[in-house]
Amino acid sequence: xxxxxxxxxxxxxxxxxxxxxxxxxxxxxxxxxxxxxxxxxxxxxxxxxxxxxxxxxxxxxxxxxxxxxxxxxxxxxxxxxxxxxxxxxxxxxxxxxxxxxxxxxxxxxxxxxxxxxxxxxxxxxxxxxxxxxxxxxxxxxxxxxxxxxxxxxxxxxxxxxxxxxxxxxxxxxxxxxxxxxxxxxxxxxxxxxxxxxxxxxxxxxxxxxxxxxxxxxxxxxxxxxxxxxxxxxxxxxxxxxxx
Amino acid sequence: xxxxxxxxxxxxxxxxxxxxxxxxxxxxxxxxxxxxxxxxxxxxxxxxxxxxxxxxxxxxxxxxxxxxxxxxxxxxxxxxxxxxxxxxxxxxxxxxxxxxxxxxxxxxxxxxxxxxxxxxxxxxxxxxxxxxxxxxxxxxxxxxxxxxxxxxxxxxxxxxxxxxxxxxxxxxxxxxxxxxxxxxxxxxxxxxxxxxxxxxxxxxxxxxxxxxxxxxxxxxxxxxxxxxxxxxxxxxxxxxxxx
Lengths: 243, 243
What we know:
The structure is a homodimer. By secondary structure, chain A is α/β, with parallel strands linked by helices. Chain A folds into 2 domains: about 5-115, Tetrapyrrole methylase, N-terminal domain (Cobalt-precorrin-4 Transmethylase, domain 1, 3-Layer(aba) Sandwich); about 115-240, Tetrapyrrole methylase, C-terminal domain (Methyltransferase, Cobalt-precorrin-4 Transmethylase, Domain 2), CATH 3.30.950. Helices cover about 30% and strands about 25% of the residues of chain A. The first copy, chain A, has a 5-stranded parallel beta sheet with strand order 3-2-4-1-5, sandwiched between helices. In chain A, strand 9 and strand 10 (about 205-210) form a beta hairpin. The longest helix of chain A has 13 residues, at about 60-70. Chain A is elongated. The termini of chain A are far apart. The mean pLDDT of chain A is about 95. Chains A and B meet through helix 1, helix 4, strand 5, helix 5 and strand 6 of A and helix 1, helix 4, strand 5, helix 5 and strand 6 of B. Chains A, B: InterPro entries: 4pyrrol_Mease, 4pyrrol_Methylase_sf, 4pyrrole_Mease_sub1, 4pyrrole_Mease_sub2, Cbl_synth_CobJ/CibH_dom, Precorrin_MeTrfase. Chains A, B: It comes from Gemmobacter fulvus.
């Protein structure tokens, strides 16, 4: 049997939002590798070894997956959402680049429903026209780059999705993000705070930019900012196709 | 029985890339409404009425779905990819806004795998850091707005996904898009042309910006442009997490 690494997206939380190909990949895996809470979403069974690891060890985890596959295992690396969007896929390719001896391991990415698009669906269609996705964390890049992208995105009138808006170690940067948005956008701009999307704890809250405060976001929140044409209709928020 | 509209994403083409909740929604539908080739992906069965309609009648189709649901039907509006990304969700909310008499119809969006993210997964992880999505069609907006967003996105060093890059009625605008990219980005910038993603006709081709020509894109192509750090490792293209 030849080993392989499949990097699979589990979607934002609800098991019904997983694709059929990801379900099939998990059924055929010998090993599942990933961050503890994501591995906890995979049902144990005989013949399957679970390898849950802590946060912030993405590169070690990726290398471990490639090594297991190189020895013949059929490894599924699990990510929340879509592995290609601020998740494990880039880490696996970084590990592959650093380890030419593992270059023969076949790597396949199985997409999933990313949090931003699940949040948009729950709210209506706020990303219904041109949009961008920005990771607000400065763990791996300077915050000045976040600020620059944010300002240019506002000037381009993109709708926006923000990942990792705020954490215990970075409590104040999201206030700066709101400040930049206030410099670039009208106070009526609509912002949706989507917490724990698709789980039983889901909370959606849409406010204007004038009403938004930094404490509306936390680690489990995805933030959606409409473009200048985004509006409400009944309980929904949407961006028209012409904007 | 109370009617409802569910707007469901069928993913880019492969039936295995559909989510379990979309499969369940289709199994419970009384009516399926959508563009001819998307409705053709739903298996006929007794008790299910299929309503395939032509392209460019999105608003009529959306209104029809709301009217059917208002009369008690359980309607699934099918989109390719994700209904919230350049697809039917915004059209349904536009129709709802135009017809206050239909405001009581419950509308739910079921996300799907959008073409850009399926293409990224097939190529590796070229959208692995901050990125934007731009619909290049000027059917519903001025092309000047496309040009403006493109230029600002390049200046922000976003990776980019382009939908509807080129059609028979707009054969030359994609050449202008490449021209703007050449003004803003290095000639070594990687571009992936992903045609018919996840179908048996899938073709992926990655070239540098210097090598890219307008005829590499057509109606069935999604174009992915890396950011300045996007690179190749073996047969894969990816963007590191730090860029």
